[in-house]
Amino acid sequence: xxxxxxxxxxxxxxxxxxxxxxxxxxxxxxxxxxxxxxxxxxxxxxxxxxxxxxxxxxxxxxxxxxxxxxxxxxxxxxxxxxxxxxxxxxxxxxxxxxxxxxxxxxxxxxxxxxxxxxxxxxxxxxxxxxxxxxxxxxxxxxxxxxxxxxxxxxxxx
Length: 157
Hints:
By secondary structure, this protein is mainly β. 4% of the residues lie in helices and 52% in strands. It has 1 helix and 10 strands. The chain is globular and about 45 Å long.
């Protein structure tokens, strides 16, 4: 609690994730997203995902915006954790500095990269950021299982 948070209430969001052998066309993800088109007229998100599209699992993170005043999905920053293995636990972490809105992405405590979003000023005053875990079937007929454990979100203050 609460569902909607400020940056100071969602500074660190992490979870262990795994995909089963034979998974294809799907992903497990953690993300922090604005509730609706409320960050400079669009929806904003920071996300890390463990993907299974056509081969071995791979890990990537991004900062993106969409909806509202955006004609298309806009990915303004990406960081990759590379190719991984099936049936192996990985810890994904998103850290956001509440003073600067800088977003940093980690895989198993290894820094993948940091970025100050274009929407930093609006994010610093936002009160409607929602941390979520999720499972996504990106292809029709997606297969496999996705697992989450040890989810941690900076406690609300």
